[in-house]
Structures are given as structure tokens and as C-alpha cells.
User: Which sequence fits this backbone?
């Protein structure tokens, strides 16, 4: 995953996007590091369910899609137009997914890099006994254990 999104889509013109990108750089000193897709026909917004029921025809919800390097949609986060997104949470989610992929583990709620991860349950009684006895794992029970990476 390259970051929280590979592309963003807005129901605005290319000129609006140019002005927005320049304004964000000028006012907040932030570079927009992903392509922005103009969606004047609303095909993208409709395809991804970004039009809120009862909203005007040009009012899309704020949506963030996390797409991995293979082009697989891994997460979708929707926000009403009236509320901002948590970039820290989106980055945390991306790091958690990258960790899960790399180590074949799961991450608990609010997991941050460096914290313990959840390991898959053991496949046999012997493996379960060895895991609990090893001291390497923090086990609630034989099937639910965490460990440091």
C-alpha cells in the first residue's frame, strides 16, 4: 500500500482541483501526493456508493479507499460532508494492514506499531501447549495469544 489512498475523486472540474492542490500547499504547506480524479459525470461516485441518499445530485460523501499495490480494495471509510476525516487513523490502519500482511498476524483495536499483535490460533494440542509454556506469548487462553514482533 502506498498510503491512505491511490487516488481521490471529487465531483469538480480539473481547474477546481488545480486550485485546491495549490491552495493546500500555499496555506498549509502540504503536498498532495496522489492523483485527483475529476468526476463530472459522477460515474466514480455512483460506482462506489458515494452519493448520500437525499443529498443533491452533486453532493458526494467524503470517502477514503485503501487500495493495495495489487489493486485490491482493502478498506473503505465513509464520512458525512459535515465531518472531517482522521488522517492519523487512516495511517494507523494502513500500517496495521501492512503488519498483518508481512507477519500473518492480526492487530487489536487502536493498535500502534511496536505494540503486541494477535497470532493465529495453534493447529494442534502440542502446539497450543508449547505456545502457552514458551513464555514468548501473552495468552488469555490457548486460542487467543499476543506477542511482540
Assistant:
Amino acid at each position: 500500500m502506498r498510503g491512505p489512498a491511490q487516488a481521490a475523486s471529487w465531483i469538480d472540474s480539473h481547474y477546481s482541483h488545480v486550485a485546491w492542490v495549490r491552495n493546500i500547499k500555499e496555506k498549509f504547506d502540504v503536498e498532495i501526493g496522489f492523483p485527483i480524479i475529476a468526476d463530472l459525470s459522477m460515474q466514480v461516485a455512483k460506482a462506489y456508493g458515494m452519493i448520500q441518499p437525499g443529498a443533491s445530485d452533486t453532493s458526494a460523501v467524503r470517502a477514503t479507499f485503501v487500495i493495495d499495490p495489487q489493486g485490491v480494495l482493502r478498506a473503505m471509510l465513509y464520512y458525512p460532508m459535515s465531518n472531517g476525516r482522521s488522517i492519523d487513523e487512516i495511517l494507523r490502519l494502513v500500517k496495521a494492514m501492512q503488519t498483518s500482511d508481512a507477519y500473518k498476524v492480526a492487530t487489536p483495536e487502536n493498535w500502534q506499531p511496536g505494540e503486541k499483535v494477535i497470532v493465529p490460533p495453534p493447529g494442534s494440542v502440542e502446539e497450543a501447549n508449547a505456545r502457552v509454556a514458551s513464555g514468548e506469548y501473552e495468552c488469555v487462553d490457548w486460542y487467543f495469544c499476543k506477542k511482540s514482533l
